Amino acid sequence: MKTRNTVLTGLAIAIFALVLWLADKNLGGYAMRILNLSAIYVVLSLSLNLVNGFTGLFSLGCAGFMAVGAYVSALLTMSPEVKEMNFFLEPLAPWLARLTLPFALALVAGGFCAALAGLVVGIPVLRLKDDYLAIATLGFSEIIRVVITNLQGLTNGAQGLKNIPKFSTTWTVWGVAALVVAFMALLTRSSYGRQLKAVRDDEIAAEAMGVNVFRVKVTSFTISSFLAGVGGALLGHMITTIDPKMFSFMLTFNILLIVVLGGNGSITGSVIASILVTVLMEALRFLDEPLNLFFFKTNGLPGLRMVVFSAMLMAVVILRQRGLMGDQELTWSGFEKAGLLPRSKKGASK
Predict the structure, then answer these.
(1) Coil, strand or helix at 240
(2) 101, 151, 298, 319: which has the fewest Cβ within 10 Å?
(3) Residue range 25-349, CATH number
C-alpha cells in the first residue's frame, strides 16, 4: 500500500512537471503570469492557513510580513547601479549600497527577517485571543507599511523599488510552492502538528496534557511569517516593482478569502482555491468592459467583475460553510474509496 502510494505520488509529480513544461513552452506571457501568480498564492495561503486553520488563531498581519520579505530580498539582489538609480532622493544606506547576494540566499534572508518580525510581534500579541488578536496583527501590518513609507534611506519610501531582478520564473515559484506543500504535509502529520490541532480544538485540554500552548502559538506564528516573507519576495521578483501601497489590508483579505474558500485546516483546499481564485479573477475581467448580450447591455461597468465574483463566493460559502475541502485532504486512499482507483490487494483482502 505504502509503495503504491509512493509510486502514484511520484507519477503525479512527473505529470505535473510535464504540464508545467508544456505550459511554459506554449502559453503566452500573460497566461504564464497568472499561472505563476497562482503558485505564489499557494505559498501565501498555506502560510496563513498554518496560523488560522491549523492553530486556530485569527491573524490579519500577512501583508506586513510579505512586505518585509519583499523589501529585504529585493534590496539584497539588486545591483549597485540599480540601487543608485532608485535612491535618487536620498542615498541608500552605505552598508547596503554595494551588497548583492544570490537569489536563493536573498529569498531565505527575506523569510528569516519576516520570521524575526513575526517572533517580535508574536510574543506580546499572541496572549490575546479572537478579535483582539486580529486587530493587533492588522495594526502591525499597517505599522510596517507606514514605516516602509517613511524610511526613505532604506526602502526608498513611497517611490518603492523598481527594476528588481526577475528571478521568479515558472520553475522557481512552482518549485518553492511544492516545497512548501511538502513541508506543510510533513509538519501537520508530525507530533508538533498534532499539538497545533490540539491547541486549535481546546487550549485548556491541550495544556492539561502537557502542551506548552504559548510556545506552540509563537512557533506557528513565526513559521507562518517566514512563509509569508518568502511569498512576498517571490511576488516582488515576479512583478519586478514594489511599493508600500501593494501591502495593504486588501492583500491580506484576498489571501484570507482563499483560505476560507479552500477550507480552514486543509492543505489541498488552499492549493485548489489559490489556483481557482487567481484564474477566476482574470477570467471574469471581461465583465468590466462593454457588454452586448441578448438580455444585458452595458457601456462598461468597472467593478462588475468583483460583484459577480463576490456573489459566486457568497454562494459557495452559504452552500458549503466549511469551504471546498473543509479540513479534509485529497489522498490516494480517498480516491480508492471513491472508486477512482482500483483497490490494493491489502484493501481487497479486507
Answers:
(1) coil
(2) 319
(3) 1.10.3470
Q: What is the pLDDT of residues 307-328, one digit of tens each?
A: 887 787 778 778 877 788 877 7
Claim: this prediction has a pTM higher than 0.85: yes
- The one-character DSSP state at 28 is -
Q: Which three cell numbers stand for residue 294?
A: 441578448
**Residue spans of beta strands (DSSP E) within the chain:** 161-162, 241-242, 291-292, 297-298
Segments making up each domain of the chain, as ranges: 25-349
Per-residue pLDDT of 112-166, as tens digits, reads 999 999 999 999 998 888 788 889 999 888 999 999 999 888 899 889 999 999 9
Which residues on neighbouring strands pair with residue 161, listed in sequence order?
242
Q: Which of 243, 255, 240, 233 is nearest to 62 (CA)?
A: 255
Instruction: Report d(CA 189, CA 87) in Å as an integer.
Output: 47
C-alpha cell at 120: 517580535
CA distance 53 to 224: 11
Q: How far separated are the first and last CA of the chain, in Å rounded?
A: 13
Euclidean distance between CA atoms 286 and 57, whole angstroms? 37
All 3 cell numbers of residue 127? 496572549
Beta carbons within 8 Å of 159's beta carbon, 6+ residues apart:
86, 89, 243
In the structure grid, which three cell numbers stand for residue 104, read together? 536563493
